Structure formats: structure tokens, C-alpha cells
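Please, structure for the following, as C-alpha cells.
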Amino acid sequence: MKITRIIPSLNSSDLVATRDFYCGLLNLSVDMEDGMFMMLNSPDVTSAQIVVNDNGHSGLPPGFAIDIGDAEAVKVLHDQLVQRGFPIVEPLADKAWGIRRFSVIDPNGVRVTIISHLPG
């Protein structure tokens, strides 16, 4: 498994204010937006990213995402975590925007979302 990036994930009760803060003051750009979800990145270093979710959208605790670079490896890791009894709080799914992902709660109560781009 090759980790290609780690992305912090924030919860927000005011996405407009969050966008204004990170884009207007810190000069990040909205890379992707889907309803109550935004991915922000640096225009200079596009792998420097922050994911923002509306608090009411997912009901999940804040955490971060780890991109492991291989969609099949996401499924393998999911199955290993299930077998070891870790709580899966977002099911394994292929998203319309080309990402396979799931979320698990680590031993510290932090949500870790495992992701990879789908082939093609």
C-alpha cells in the first residue's frame, strides 16, 4: 500500500463562512463542491487539501482522509478492518466523482476515511 496524501477533514455548520475564511483569507480554491461537501486546495500545491462537510450532512466526527492510491487496496483494507472489528461508520462505496472510499473510527475515536481514485 502506498500512501499518496493525507487530507484533513473539517465539519462546518456554516459552509459559506468556511469558504470565505479559507478561500477569501487563506487563498485556497474550491476544487470540488457537492451539496454539503467541499474540497479546497492550494492553487500552488494542489495536493495540499482540506475537505469540509456540513455537520448535519454526515453526522460523523471530524478526522482526515488517507489516499492509498489503489482502489482494490481500499477494499482489501476495508475487509481487514471489518474482520478485526473496527467500527465502519461510512460504508465502502464507489462515488460518482471517481473515488472509492469508506470511513472507520480509529482507537482514539478519530474518523479515518480511506480513499483512492477509481481506475479510468
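The mean pLDDT is 88. Residues 5-117 form a domain with the 2,3-Dihydroxybiphenyl 1,2-Dioxygenase; domain 1 fold (CATH 3.10.180.10).
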